[in-house]
Prior knowledge:
Butyryl-Coa Dehydrogenase, subunit A, domain 1; Butyryl-CoA Dehydrogenase, subunit A, domain 3; 10 strands; binds flavin-adenine dinucleotide
Amino acid sequence: MSQQKSEKNTFPSVAGNFFYGEIDENTVFPFPSFSEEQKEMAKAMTDAVCKFAADSIDAAKMDEEAKIPAEVITGLGELGLCGLAVEEEYGGMALDYTLYARVFQEMAGIDGSTATMLGAHQSIGYRALINEGTPEQKAKWLPDLASGKRLASFCLTEPGSGSDAYSIKTKAVDNGDGTYTITGQKLWITNGGSADFYSVYCKTDHEENGKTVEKITCFAVVKGEPGSEGLSFGEKENKMGIRASETRAVYFDKVVVPKENILGELGKGFKVAMNVLNSGRLSLGSGCVGGMKAILKLATEHAAGRKQFDRPIAEFGLIQEKLTDMAATIYSLESTVYMTTGLMDRGMGDYQLESAICKVYGSESLWKVVDTGLQIAAGNGYMREYPYERIMRDSRINLIFEGTNEILRVFTALAGIRGPSESLKELGKISDVSSVLSDPIKSVGVLTDFAKSRFSKMMVTRALTKAHASLEEEANYFSGMLSGFAIQVENTLIKYGKDIIGNEFPQGRIANMTIELYVMLALLSRTTSILNSSDVDQKKKDYVSKMCKLAFHDSRRRFVSNLKGMTKNKDKMIKEISEMVVDNGGYGLDIIDY
Length: 594
Ligand SMILES: Cc1cc2nc3c(=O)[nH]c(=O)nc-3n(C[C@H](O)[C@H](O)[C@H](O)COP(=O)(O)OP(=O)(O)OC[C@H]3O[C@@H](n4cnc5c(N)ncnc54)[C@H](O)[C@@H]3O)c2cc1C
């Protein structure tokens, strides 16, 4: 049980294959279930987390005081929660992706600030050390980080560089004596101040073809080590939510580090950061499952207990709609996250699309579910005496950090279409498709291959033969949507060519369709496994089967609306109105005048 990649067992991204209209059923069926060993471990750890939280975590007080007490961090460290993915030889729990996600989910369901602190510490803070560290680096720093004796921070964002992460300015200058001097500032760094270990992304100079070019390198800056005297911190930020987690600016004034503190290769830091964020996004997604389950529990208790018009409000249709929607959304996200972690544990080598999907779908589902839960509680929900408003404030950050959902949509579309655009390169060499048709002899080889693959996509076959018989209708819909999606991706590439890169309207729809396809697949896979199991009673089977069908058809509706939007939309008008809004400096109308 660990997150070490099994080299012999790697297979390609499931979501990446959607862009070719392909799916390897053997990778997603059966749904990756917990082994007996994993179940035992998960139960032991989540029980321990709940017990510790009941005794020691007062989320409302921590929110009020905007502070996580030191003894909470110490206690979490003693439980092993600060070193979930660290190999045992360095004092960690060596959990695989599935267990890591499940334990993280539990913590996030208890308190958003504590989960953020823990996530910033290990999901991203010292993740570069796990992924890239040499045995010497790991031996030097990991044991204290895994035990929670020292905290870690991930330092990428700067005042001028948020989403455009490559534009960072913090500079590490090679002193020519085996050391680098780091100067610059990082903004909104979680655990900034209290952490000892900072993974800092800096620009470094490189000679290429007689020119000096800047690339990114990741350095470990450790408080108290010689040369770190220039490390300082801004005031603690006064935030809307996750208030108990610490967020500060981090300043580097001629901080000197030895080259032994470089994490990964010199000049390859951007890739290091992206890989770190890929796994970070996954735990963020599982954390959203925890938050959603917590709010549904609260809202259900309220709906069952609160009487209006002489009846519990849970008996009113418009409240029933909400409870059902919340449960079905949780089922969808849980299936999506744990299909992903299971695929990663089975050896899916490239999971950047899947983890982005977990983050985007997770954060938006959480936000929707929290809003719905608060509406069920109504006035109580709005009062600080109850936890709903805190959970709402805490939830909002998930759509922003670790890559905003807009950036991740752009990323999902562009990373996904990279594959098919390579395959269509031959076509791209010919100035446009009509010129291909006007000279069919010259292009016959290209066109024949293209036509063959296109024809196979248009033949709506049953792509999912392994789905449970009672889900046949959904499986057939899925097959049709998958081929429709791949054809649309090709059409988009032919229509826009390389201009697709600057065209976010179709990118957004492609990303949305990718997300929905992946969610629908997770629903079909998990529900099939439950329905096929002899260990599950009929009542539970009915429950999941109904939730699957409901969530699937919601997802399908969103997919179809995005697919239709690819060819019939108001994009031009949207762009024009937005430009007018900017020209007006806002709305620009007053009812008095117009
Ligand atoms: C509480 C908190 C904790 C944080 N913790 C950390 C941390 O530990 N480490 C760290 O490095 N950073 C951290 N951050 C920073 C966080 O990752 C950034 O806020 C985030 O990446 C977005 O950057 P920005 O806020 O500058 O927004 P901007 O990049 O300025 O974006 C503003 C808006 O424009 C959109 N946008 C930008 N570019 C595009 C585009 N090309 N297409 C479409 N839309 C676009 C964005 O999606 C967003 O809606 C934290 C932030 C907060 C609030």
